[in-house]
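Our working data are protein records whose layout never changes between entries. Getting from the letters to the tokens is the skill we practise here. To make this concrete, we reproduce a full record directly below:
***
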Amino acid sequence: MKRSFIILPLVWVFLTGSIPCFASTNILFILDSSNSMWGQVDKIAKIATAKKVLKALVSDLPEGTNVGLMAYGHNKERDCTDVSILSPIRKNNPDNLSVMIDAIQPKGKTPLTYALDQSLSAFSSLKGQNNYIVLISDGMETCGGDPCTASAKLVAAGINVRVNVVGFDVEKAERMQLECIASNGNGRYFNADNTKNLEAAFVEVKKAVVKAPTPAKIEGSVVNLLDPKNGGQTISASHDLFPRLIDGKEDTVQYFNTGQQAVYAFKDEQLATLESVAVPI
């Protein structure tokens, strides 16, 4: 276990602080599996190219990234509720996700609004973390919904989510709607009109969703860092009374001579904000 060290002159009576829990990066990929994805770009079906590039991105994500997969239009031809979370957001497993991605066969419509509405449940237990949706689509809503409003509702839901959108071989009107989804979702839009551009777009997607971790906000996170129950430990001490100072009791007081010192450690090298230090004056 990694530890951080503190050298204490004279006496250390009580130390409290906050140990931040770093927020996870959680990504839900939504893959357009409508019938139009059989259309060709560079003489290859768009779905084949999208699968290849998506699998490459999933395999290249940093360790610790959590990933989920959703598809729409993959089961029925005319069903505007044909939306499925094929894999919930969890520790990234590129091999398993690749199998799921390969199994997708475009068939139906483009229920963008319903898909965005359904994605809310994927983040229900991940509030306050770094949450992202990456939507890959080759067209606009075909079920009469308003995906721009749906994207705005996701942001307003308080789950700290950003909606990024990749438009693959889209027309002007389609692009405008997809850009609106990204804008209302506090995310970015990436346009790709051929295979090379799609690969480049996914490079930019990775940059947008993979960032340095930020601390999650946790209620009641003030703890006694040197309490043995929290990983506190006496490394060395010039007097056998020093270890008594980290017995977890907040009213412990010991007196020592000038020049005596001790070295304590608290766990995992985490950053700490000191809030209370008591010494005799």
Notes: The radius of gyration is 26 Å.
